[in-house]
Design brief:
The strands form 2 sheets. The protein has a 6-stranded parallel β-sheet with strand order 3-2-1-4-5-6, with helices on both faces. By secondary structure, it is of the alpha/beta class. The chain folds into 2 domains: about 5-225 and about 405-425, Glycogen Phosphorylase B (Rossmann fold, 3-Layer(aba) Sandwich); about 240-400, 3-Layer(aba) Sandwich (Rossmann fold), CATH 3.40.50. The protein contains 14 helices and 12 strands.
Length: about 425
């Protein structure tokens, strides 16, 4: 097994985010002799926050992705890209005459090429001729995928490496993007050897939008690790838990409206939200205005392991996610792994792990406050046997569809097999 994997991430193992990789990297490291993690959005001031296996080398790109940092990237690369007739033609075709799309394409390509140039300098320090096969793995179908394609087509051109990308949410659903558009979709799908959305919903979206590439696209789910702990709860009140970065898309304001109705109905509860983010102050202010703060607990940002530890030591009746857009939420998986039922909106791939009436309640995307409240009341009034059955179903579905031990081991095996098969085809 003399193989090499180059994994392109945004921040991992620096900063926070991309928590799934904290589990997946262990399975990848067992199947590849050497792994290089290229952290494309990490500046020189950032410190590594997560440990990696011994056969993993971490290469931070060292670029600030602040507004000014991104602006400098565009200034450094724009002239070169504009003079490249092939790229200019691609951008014109991709933007379909829309001036905003065209600017977005130049911005996207500039960022990707600026990262690529730095990556090349780092990779020049290593001998890749020693490896029998090289696999390029982009964690996102965005900048990291564009860099992976450039590595495939130029830096590793003689090796023709097996090149794949995962796809999640912001990098997948064009209708959810600010301009209802994502750059270079056709080019990336054509150039990659395989694309793996984390949900069947994502697969269906790509197949419908880009049917020419359906043979390359298949679902590869993300998962969580079992803590071998079942959450304990009591029936004195509803222990309501939510966990997410505080962004508008998470619609915590809608949850607060539903909780305010619970207070009016004299239904006792304690709501705990795990996570911080750009909307933290606004959500906290709204909660103070609408709710009795004795019924509310904000933990702020917690590391992934601390989130799991919180579940071990605190009661939880139900987990809630009212997002307007999702991939397949890790927070829901983590709650289910501890036997906690779920109330969630039917967006993205959520329906693939939450089945209405079985392990919780699945609400339509534009659900009303009354419908949310009714779900809470169902949990509050549920008898012990019915609630226990929902808890058991949550754990059962998690084990069948979200167990990282099974999902990541199988994915790592597939990368190795496909990489070797691809190698044999190109020799």
């Amino acid at each position: 097994m003399n193989n090499c994997l180059i994994l392109l991430t945004n921040y991992y193992p620096f900063h926070k985010g991309e928590e799934y990789l904290e589990s997946e990297i262990e399975y990848l490291s067992a199947k590849f002799k050497q792994i290089f993690i290229i952290s494309t959005m990490v500046s020189n001031e950032m410190k590594q926050t997560r440990s990696v296996p011994e056969n993993v080398t971490v290469l931070p790109v060292g670029i600030k992705h602040s507004f000014m940092g991104k602006t400098r990237m565009v200034f450094r690369q724009f002239k070169t890209i504009y003079k490249d007739t092939v790229k200019r033609k691609m951008i014109i075709e991709d933007s379909k005459g829309n001036i905003l799309y065209k600017f977005y394409c130049y911005y996207f390509e500039s960022r990707a090429m600026d990262v690529y140039n730095r990556v090349v300098k780092m990779l020049n320090e290593f001998d890749f001729d020693q490896y029998d096969s090289i696999t390029l793995y982009s964690y996102w179908l965005y900048i990291t995928a564009r860099v992976a394609v450039e590595l495939k087509n130029n830096y590793f051109k003689a090796r023709n490496p097996y090149t794949i990308s995962r796809a999640h949410r912001y990098d997948l659903y064009e209708y959810a993007a600010p301009l209802k558009y994502l750059p270079e979709r056709d080019y990336l799908l054509k150039s990659l050897d395989a694309i793996y959305p984390c949900s069947q919903d994502g697969v269906d979206f790509l197949n419908e939008t880009y049917p020419a590439y359906r043979d390359k696209i298949s679902v590869r789910r993300l998962g969580t690790i079992s803590t071998n702990t079942i959450s304990n709860t009591t029936n004195d009140k509803l222990y309501i838990v939510s966990c997410s970065v505080m962004r508008k898309v998470k619609r915590l304001d809608l949850l607060i409206q539903a909780l305010a109705e619970l207070e009016k109905k004299k239904i006792p509860f304690l709501w705990t939200h795990i996570g911080g983010g750009p909307e933290f102050d606004n959500i906290k202010k709204l909660a103070r205005k609408k709710l009795n703060m004795e019924h509310v607990h904000f933990t702020g940002y917690l590391k992934n392991q601390d989130v799991l530890n919180w579940y071990k030591h605190n009661p939880a009746t139900v987990f809630v996610n009212l997002s307007s857009s999702e991939g397949v939420p890790v927070a829901i998986m983590e709650a289910m792994s501890m036997g906690i039922p779920v109330i969630a909106t039917d967006v993205g791939g959520t329906r693939e792990i939450v089945e209405n009436g079985l392990n919780g309640y699945l609400l339509k995307k534009d659900c009303t406050v009354t419908e949310i409240v009714d779900c809470f009341i169902n949990f509050y009034k549920a008898n012990a046997n019915d609630y226990s059955e929902m808890c058991n179903n949550a754990l059962k579905i998690w084990n069948e569809r979200c167990n990282a031990k099974i999902l990541y081991a199988d994915f790592a095996d597939q990368l190795v097999k496909n990489g070797h098969r691809f190698l044999r085809k190109t020799i």
